[in-house]
Design a protein that fits this description.
The chain is mostly helical. The protein is built from four helices and no strands. Helices cover 66% and strands 0% of the residues. The protein starts with a helix and ends with a helix.
C-alpha cells in the first residue's frame, strides 16, 4: 500500500503526547520504519530523540546500536 511516510508521521504524532510509557514505543516504531525504508537521516534523528528524552525506557536500551547504524 506504500504509505510509509504516512505511517511514520502517524507514529511521530502519537509519540508527541509525552507519555513516558507510550511515547518511546511510538518513537521506536517510527524510527524502525524509517530505517527499514532507507530514511537513515530521519531514523537517526528519531533514535537520538528516543535516547535523549526516554533514556530509561525499555526501547532505549539498545538504541546506541541503531544510532551508529544510521550514521
Amino acid at each position: 500500500l506504500n504509505k510509509v511516510d504516512d505511517a511514520i508521521a502517524a507514529y511521530k504524532k502519537a509519540a508527541s503526547n509525552d507519555n513516558d510509557y507510550t511515547a518511546p514505543r511510538f518513537l521506536y516504531k517510527a524510527a524502525q520504519l524509517a530505517f527499514l525504508n532507507d530514511k537513515k537521516e530521519e531514523a537517526n534523528a528519531l533514535f537520538t530523540q528516543l535516547k535523549d528524552k526516554y533514556e530509561t525506557s525499555r526501547e532505549a536500551m539498545n538504541v546506541d546500536t541503531f544510532i551508529e547504524m544510521t550514521k
